[in-house]
Amino acid sequence: MSVLRSGSPHRPARSLASVAGVLLAVLSLLLGLPGTAGAAATRYAPEPSHPGQDWAGSQIARHEGTAAGTAPSASSLAASVEGVDVSSHNGNVAWSTLWNSGVRFAYVKATESTSYTNPYFAQQYNGSYNAGMIRGAYHFATPNTSSGAAQATYFVNHGGGWSKDGRTLPGALDMEYNPYGATCYGLSAAGLVNWMKDWFATYKARTGRDAVIYTSTSWWKQCTGNSAAFGSVNPLWIPRYGSSAGELPAGWGFHTIWQYTSSGPTVGDHNRFNGALDRLRALANG
Question: Most CB contacts within 10 A, which of 61, 85, 179, 258?
């Protein structure tokens, strides 16, 4: 009968196998724990809890005031075009009323983060188009909930695409004060700039267009360090509820759209395109 002695060459092999098995089990446990392999997925904030209350200018009005803007005089109408922007808080919009009052373009909120779509989007986006307007869609950004690429993809997949039909504007990215916490979404100036670069690059890859950016000079200075990274490429849509568009963020020599009031007729938010109707059509055509 064979005897297993302490010096047997088989025992270390079994011991090594046992140790390896224990290590594999521990590793599997660790990989399943929050904060280890799942760390990248948990670094983001929760999805927005009240996206229906967030629209282009909702936080601008809260932080910068709601003084009514002064509509351009009749003598300047040849060089500007009246527009509006809407979201779910407007419900079903009376587009024929707006058309008859001289409104010729509209931006409609399509999405927020990667979890929200405007339930009135079809009525607003298609309704403005059917009334004869040039229309576009915008995305309310929440840079702390997911990547720029993820949000741009979600936007394009849920109404934010573009077609060269002469009446569809490039998508717009709404960058403003965080409705849910830290003004700058807990990101550094460089972090926010990189997030936007990610969003814009993804949008262009999907649509072939450079998107519009909606932002206020005050927020831009505070949260991006007054970055000049986008002024030569992305058209500026600036909110300022006063007598003029005022100071522009760094990088832009002129604005493309001015949101001049949040208390205009029918829908509240009214805008002026900085140019004649043929230039607005050119922006739509790309």
Answer: 85
Q: Which of the residues 174, 210, 269, 278 is marked catalytic?
A: 174
Catalytic residue check, 278: no
Count of residues making up the chain: 286
- As a whole number of angstroms, the distance between CA 236 and CA 273 comes to 11
pTM for this predicted structure: 0.82
| Cα–Cα distance measured from residue 13 to residue 130, given in angstroms and rounded to the nearest whole number | 77
Q: Which residues of 36-55 are buried (b: 16+ CB within 10 A; e: fewer)?
A: eeeeeeeebbeebeebeebb
pLDDT tens per residue, range 84-113: 999 999 999 999 999 999 999 999 999 999
Active site residue 85: yes
Which of 205, 254, 196 has its CA nearest to residue 225? 196
Half-sphere exposure of residue 3, counting CA atoms within 13 Å on the CB side?
Answer: 3
106 touches 82 (CB < 8 A): no
Please pick, among 54, 82, 85, 112, the residue that the annotation labels catalytic: 85
To the query of whether residue 165 is one of the catalytic residues in this protein, the response is no
> Residue 103 and residue 123: Cα distance in Å, rounded?
17
